[in-house]
Design goal:
The chain has 284 residues and is of the alpha/beta class. It is built from nine helices and eight strands. α1 (88-97) packs parallel to α7 (225-240). The structure holds nickel (II) ion.
Length: 284
Amino acid sequence: MSTPRRLVSSGLALTLLPLAACSAGSAAAPAPDTTSAASPAPAASTPASTGSITPSPTTRVSPPTPAVDCRAKKCLALTFDDGPGPYTDQILDALVKHHARATFYVLGQQAKVFPAVLKREQRLAMAIGDHSWSHRDLSRATLPKATEELSSTAELIRRITGSAPTSIRPPYGAYRKNTPHIGLPFILWDVDTLDWKHRSTSRTTHLALAGAHRGAIILMHDIHPSTAQAVPGIITTLQAKGYTLVTVPELLGPMSPDGVYFSAAPQGIAKPPSTRPTPTARRR
Ligand code: NI
């Protein structure tokens, strides 16, 4: 069990944009997942449900039985946003082959199209997080709309996998002080591969490895073939350097449900994002 740490903020006054990231390109209907057992449902443009989820804001969000003690191991977390999609299985195959874990921040509209891939993520003990329904900028959404975006996705994840998501990644890393947490911590990142922007396997690999450090949270997107091709090499190189690849809940241990985390930097000191946002890059 990891000790609590890295709580960066429980209420920033303004929108915080750690980096330009998170592709909204997945909003376009992707090709059907031919590797999935279940037939894909048609894409939906609006949330299917607006139900809320547990735990309550007063309950700390703890990971299930941790498989790894990150106090003793040199842990870091690979995270993948905007799926599930046609390339997610390729990434899962690499993770399984190398006994690694990762965290997937899924869009509701994608989970509805690729439910079998989401189930596979859960079956393989990956962590699943909420990335909103339609990749909406929650810092610009009304409170009811932001709640609907997050709650509908959380409810769909629970319906498909039988388990609630364990954390939230706001699209673009954008949120405000009053953005609803629906009882879950916000997980940002401190290493950005910018894979959505350059779509280069070698660049993705370089940026992931160059930024890697103990406690890092590395951002990638499982909707790009260039990223899927980079993942096996990233995993094996990191493991050769002594890293243990874990899920975000394993990395962070118990989290505050209204907290915002960027990494598991040692001694509770949060590392700043590796890159800074720019208005143009943020919106692409
Ligand atoms: Ni995203």
